[in-house]
Amino acid sequence: MSTRAWFTMLATASTAMFVVVFAPIATTSHAQRPAADAPPGEKAESYMPVVVEKSFEAILQEDAAAKDKFVQRQSALLAERYDLGNRPARVMMSAGRKPVQEGVRVKLPAGVTWDQLAAMSPDDIKQRNLFPAGFRPLPHTKHAAGGMVFPAAQIDAIRRAEERDLERFDIAFDLPEHLTPEFPPPIFLTTRPDLGDVSQGQVLTIRNYYALLKGKLTPVQIEGLRLLLTPFPQQQFNQTEDRKVRAPSLGVACLDCHTNGHTNAAFHENPDTRPQAARFRIDTVSLRGMHNQQIHGSKRSLRSVEDFTEFEQRTAYFDGDHVTAAKKGVNLPDRASQVVMMAQMQNIFDFPPAPKLDPFGRLIPSRATAEELKGQEVFFGKGRCAECHVPPFYLDDRMHDLKLERFYTPETINDQRNIADGPIKTFTLRGIKDSPPYHHDGRLLTLEDTVEFFNLVLGVKLASDEKQALVAFLRAL
């Protein structure tokens, strides 16, 4: 039997088994749900296509010709939702470091102010369609295809260092560079806090990691880092004719997204939701402080970094589809000799120093400004932030549902069906100023946007000076 025929049989058998197993509860099955689960004309499917009928040359020509259409569509959406201007916060500027952006960037509906909106009930906001568009889910640039999309800085760095290509021919990164994290980010190690930033201003790659970190890491950590920097096949970066890079690719490495153990704002789609239209965009989270995080994955709630690492390699790299993974060259890391070493390395990426915080994660009064101290009071009091973001690491290792469906009616925007988010894990706030954009899909461009979002969604009704103070406190974490 040919390989192509085998995969066709496997996909058919898997789908058939799914139907048979769930036939007794067909009244609530995925196929019987309302049409709102997917855009008109889209089949509500769990599996990705396995057999590709077109040649690579035909796919390349078709996708490259359509690229500008998708780029322009996403640019128009971003311009409609946000003020994308470059406005650095002077209070956070320092020599040699990328400045932090400031100001609310989400655009309000015409005729209302933030205070007026915060005074309204969720039902009223929904009925009058006044929920700011920038607070809705942010679609992937090419949502129907999905996949990893890297910023230009990462593409250029890996191309120079390894002659490996992370640039897709069908789509481009969408956010302006000034709204993304510092590149390359500094590296702090829990095992050597005395060294400060050990990156020497370089991007860690398979070519330089040993020279940079020999004598600073154990043999186990060095091996873990090597594996984190080794490219393995991924849905869009591999050898097959349905890849999205021009030349056959070795794939992507963990630290292609988590640059230097942090983030470069590369985005993807979550592997946990179906159909395709209901999946949401994932902004790459930082690996800093992994040693104190007990659940991983925005929706998956994986219970160890070992579980997360193994799941990413085996299925999440392939849109959560193990059938496709078998076709494209899945990496099956050994739990004892590889996964555990990768986890050892991930667990020593530390948060950046926070000289204004005491060992309990609270501000040291003699080092903090009056505004930061006021922001801390809001954080632990009226703002109710600490109910989920518990010090000293400002997370609670739980998942919470903000129930945003109270505020808007789901609709399809740029091929994404923006249904309710459901439960999402609490993300750490330590070092948060270095990790824009915010929320699980990057829909909030600044900390000011984030404060306005939660002020509205949680109904805490902060005054303008309280919001400003809260932002000042968050920047000190």
Task: Produce a short descriptive summary.
This protein is mainly α and 477 residues long. Helix content is 32%, strand content 3%. The strands form 3 sheets. A two-stranded antiparallel ribbon has the order 1-2. A two-stranded antiparallel sheet has the order 3-6. Strands 4-5 form a two-stranded antiparallel ribbon.
Please describe what this structure looks like.
- The strands form three sheets. A two-stranded antiparallel ribbon has the order 1-2. Strands 3-6 form a two-stranded antiparallel ribbon. Strands 4-5 form a two-stranded antiparallel sheet.
- It contains 14 helices and six strands.
- The protein is 32% helix and 3% strand.
- Residues 1-36 have low confidence and may be disordered.
- With 477 residues, the protein is mainly alpha-helical.
- The protein has one domain: Cytochrome Bc1 Complex, Chain D, domain 2.
- The protein has helices spanning 3-22, 56-81, 114-118, 122-127, 152-162, 209-213, 219-228, 254-257, 305-314, 322-328, 335-346, 370-380, 447-458, 464-476, and strands at 267-269, 281-283, 399-400, 412-413, 416-417, 424-425.
What spatial order of strands do you see in the largest sheet? 1-2
Would you identify the CATH H-level superfamily? Cytochrome c-like domain
Number of strands: 6
What is the N-to-C succession of helices and strands?
A: HHHHHHHHEEHHHHEEEEHH
The main sheet comes to: 2 strands, antiparallel
Instruction: Figure out the total of helices.
Output: 14
Question: Distance N terminus to C terminus?
Answer: 59 Å
- Percent of residues in helices comes to 25-40%
CATH class: Mainly Alpha
**Poorly predicted regions:** 1-36
**What portion of residues belong to β-strands?**
under 5%
Globally, the shape reads globular
